[in-house]
């Protein structure tokens, strides 16, 4: 049965941590010694424990010689890097400068400037480029106009629908008011006619014939007087 995989995290138990440190430290020192012996390599190993105790191994006679060699190689690599980066930056600068000059020259040619050194082929290319740009600009302008027209039509339709709704509401309100007015006038007319057709009787005391009957007799006598012959007694004579 194989050994299980050890989880790579800090060991919380202090005793277990010290035991593991001692075992792995010895194994690391052994590996460094074997590497220097088998491969004829110059190896330097420095270890500080959790308590600050130093453990070291050097394949050479002195640790300081190995450290000095490391410092020299590191400083040389750092000094050699800036010239390389400067050269790359300078080459990039030259490329960008050439590109900017070409774009500026093309812009002047499109504006109709500095056309003297250009050949017929280059002039045709500039003309075709300008025509293509004009077509693209006109197409974009027409598209913008169509979008604006569609938006205006949509707003017009919305306003028309709103106007129709308001007109319908106004007609409904007017018709309701008209029906109410006719109904009220009909009721008022019925009440007035009832008053005319059915007058209230006068309960006051009267002496003699009623006034309406006397007016009827007077009207009959007046009509008889207006007949030829001068009166109602002319027929008897």
Automatic annotation (TrEMBL):
Pfam families: K-box, SRF-TF. GO terms for cellular component: nucleus. Residues 1-61 form the MADS-box domain. Residues 86-176 form the K-box domain. Gene3D superfamilies: Transcription factor, MADS-box (3.40.1810.10). The keyword Metal-binding does not apply. The keyword Zinc does not apply. Keywords: Coiled coil, DNA-binding, Nucleus, Transcription, Transcription regulation. GO terms for biological process: positive regulation of transcription by RNA polymerase II; regulation of developmental process. This is MADS-box protein. It comes from Triticum aestivum.
